[in-house]
Amino acid sequence: MHRIDCPWCGLRDEIEFAYRGDATVRRPPADAGIDAFYEYVYLRDNPRGWHVEWWHHAAGCRQWIKVVRHTTTHAIHATAKADEDMQVPRS
Amino acid sequence: MSRYSAFRLFLNGLTGHASWPRAWRNPEPRSSYDVVIVGGGGHGLAAAYYLAKEHGIANVAVVEKGPIGLGNTGRNTTIVRSNYMFPQNHRFYEWSLKLWEGLEQDLNFNAMVSQRGVLGLFHSDGQRQIFARRGNWMRLSGIDAELLDRDQVRAIVPQLDFDNARFPIMGGLLQRRGGTVRHDAVAWGYARAADRRGVDIIQHCEVTGIRIVANRVAGVETTRGFIGAKKIGLAVAGNTSHLAAMVGLRLPIESHVLQAFVSEGLKPFVDCVVTFGAGHFYISQSDKGGLVFGGNIDGYNSYAQRGNLPAMEHVWTAGVALMPALSRVRVLRQWGGVMDMTMDGSPLICRTPVEGLYLDGGWCYGGFKATPAAGWCHAHTIANDAPHALNSHFTIDRFRQGLTIDERGAGPNPWLQ
Question: What CATH architecture is A3-81?
Answer without folding.
Answer: 2-Layer Sandwich (3.30)
